[in-house]
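User: For my dataset I need records formatted as: sequence, then structure tokens, nothing else. Please produce one.
Assistant:
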Amino acid sequence: GSRSSKTFKPKKNIPEGSHQYELLKHAEATLGSGNLRQAVMLPEGEDLNEWIAVNTVDFFNQINMLYGTITEFCTESSCPVMSAGPRYEYHWADGTNIKKPIKCSAPKYIDYLMTWVQDQLDDETLFPSKIGVPFPKNFMSVAKTILKRLFRVYAHIYHQHFDSVMRLQEEAHLNTSFKHFIFFVQ
């Protein structure tokens, strides 16, 4: 296909041995229990910002992977507008490079979005990776914006590409990922 090589972002790694890595392992262990409600609960004694940061990175990686499996079906011609049905159309603005929201195709929007999220996650002032480095005062609002925008990718996949997801036999993975995401953001 002629998809942008930038759309599928490299997995954001959490350094092994770090506190974030231990939190991710805890999340994966509770996820493996099959109890998604338990998997999203803040572990006792843990920092809420740290927990949100680790899960935000994990959801970015999951959505990135899920979308990566259907990029050949999500093209400029098949998805000329970023939408989740006729009532929900998303326009892109990042507040820095693109200040006024622009209408764009789904693959372009998702490319902008994933690049923007990757930049946020890589910004040590927003998502500090070192223990003892405090999270910024606006961290919760940054994380909420990231999660709100990542939700749009799930919405687009469900509305526009669920038939492809089913043909690829990925619906169980998509549904579990989405259910985990919804429990987490609630």
